[in-house]
Amino acid sequence: MAFVEYLHAQPLAHFTRPQLATALREQTGVTYHPHYLPVVLHELGLRYYKPRPVSVRRAPQAKEALIERLKATFDGLQAMGYDLDRVAFGFADESSPQLSANTARLWSIGKAERVVNTDKQRANTFGFLALNGMDYCQPLADSSAESFRALFPKIRALHGDYEAVVVLWDNLPAHKTVAVEAAARRHQIYLVYNLPYAPDLNPIEGVWKGIKRRISEWGLMDSLDQLRNLVQGWFIELTASSSLAKQWMEDILLRALPPKSAISFCKPFS
Known about the structure:
It is globular, with a radius of gyration of 23 Å. It folds into 2 domains: 2-43, no CATH class; 62-269, Ribonuclease H-like superfamily/Ribonuclease H (Nucleotidyltransferase, domain 5), CATH 3.30.420. The chain contains 9 helices and 5 strands. Helix content is 40%, strand content 11%. Strands 3-2-1-4-5 form a 5-stranded mixed β-sheet, with helices on both faces. Mean pLDDT is 90; it is low at 266-270. InterPro entries: RNaseH_sf, Tc1-like_DDE_dom, Transpos_IS630-like, Winged_HTH_dom. It comes from Spirosoma utsteinense.
């Protein structure tokens, strides 16, 4: 464990295999065979993975800032007379999956190549991942304010049993226009903007990541229409899992809600 403490004292958080081999040799006097070194590192509790990149422009306390935004939203809804137990909550985002992706690792005999469709076409898609309402996905013509305004009646219609809908989405300029915000309010939809450069704070990003992986596993995509149909189906399949937002709810939502409020948010995860 002395070696792990030594690593904790270093200015780096991540290390290459040669760096660790050198450090082990200098700290312990032992040189490990390259094939055995990963076993030693795992036994020491180290993980081998691809670190998630975080923008240098991201706010240091992004999670706490989002919690405060949500608190202000819930306080405002209560001040307007809304019962938070009758408010739907969801995450919205757009994505543009391409006809091919190369994110999945696959098994093969030998080192085989794959034939894929490299046409630069994209299936622009809008998705809504609901915590306590209805998930929703549809093709999106473009990322204009007009296109987003047209989505609100559909989202509201899916949540007719709720008094209002709270939507967390990103800071795309078209999202923040006066026309878009006014259209949302007309449909009792209240927009909360995520912190810049913090996509990990919006659980729907996990859905798009899963779809990209499935495109990679699929292989040859015949057409853009086929891609659109597959994206629709995969979205429904992936959003059926309650685990997508469970950690987000525990880390952020439950800290933002007033005490004893919106118990319905917990039902999908009980």
